[in-house]
Amino acid sequence: MRSVYRKVAVLATVCALGSGVWPAVARPLSAYREYDSGVFAGGGFKLSLPGKGRADVAREKPSGRAGDEEAISPELLPLSVSSFRTVGNPIMPKRVAEAVPGLDKEARRQLEASLMLLLRQYEQQLDRDDDFRLKNNLAGAFNFLFGASYSVLKDGQGLSRTQQESMLRQINASFALRLKEQRLSDREKQELYESAVLSGSIILGLYSEGRDTRQPAQQRTARELARELLTRLMGVSIEQVRTEGDSVRIN
């Protein structure tokens, strides 16, 4: 796994956070040190999770008219509301590789292959967990990103299985509302799905590698990325997150 993240490290040269040029002095390249979260959040879509008060009100409301998602408890919405049909081969690995300046053809090919591997590993894990409902599912991908970010920002303390399910239901309900406001094509949904999976994988990989190789600076960078991606893709900060027994709430 470490070699995968080392290959992905060329993402550092995506320079929205830097000068836009390669450094004149040779130094170890790290995608995570000068990471541009805009590569993954470039479409301008932000999932806004409801605060605790809004979620409580939703649970207390009567069912209302058919199709009114705001009147339905998050626990009652099927995951199918955030599922989509793939439009073909993965999209984001090639797009990210092409966004990195200064790479020759072979380096670009290797980067794309590494990102493809991260996507495959995510879906292989779903297979091992017998969790096929989360394949091609936006709520599942964003729940993975949320869980990865939470774990990194809490120094390796992850959510329990029941807490993950609680968050999954809330994210699914939020997608139902967001997609009602902003219609997305299956291609756009696939791009979001891949962006969330790759972002979560890179955050976890960077943090784990920094921990295993005793590089605290790399762990700090992972935390910075986690915080930024939570904000840019999900509209939430870690300070808003509260765990209450088996549930997770956003204040």
Can you walk through the features of this model?
The structure is a single chain. With 251 residues, the protein is mostly helical. Helices cover 54% and strands 3% of the residues. The protein has 9 helices and 2 strands; from the N terminus they run αααααααααββ. It has helices spanning 2-8, 38-41, 52-60, 92-99, 105-128, 138-153, 161-181, 186-212, 216-234; strands at 241-244, 247-250. A two-stranded antiparallel sheet has the order 1-2. A hairpin with a 2-residue loop joins β1 (241-244) and β2. α4 (92-99) runs antiparallel to α5 (105-128), α6 packs across α7 (161-181) and α6 packs antiparallel against α9 (216-234). The model is unreliable at 9-35 and 52-70 (pLDDT under 50).
Task: Note the main attributes of this structure.
globular, mainly alpha, 251 residues, 9 helices
Please describe the topology of this protein.
Layout lengths: L1 H7 L29 H4 L10 H9 L31 H8 L5 H24 L9 H16 L7 H21 L4 H27 L3 H19 L6 E4 L2 E4 L1
Antiparallel strand pairs: 1-2
The N- to C-terminal Cα distance equals 36 Å
Query: Which descriptor suits the 3D outline?
Result: globular
Low-confidence stretches: 9-35, 52-70
How many DSSP H or I helices? 9
Strand content: under 5%
What strand order characterises the main sheet?
A: 1-2
Structural class call reads mainly alpha
Radius of gyration equals 18 Å
DSSP strand count: 2
Helix content: 40-55%
Look at the structure and give the mean pLDDT. 78
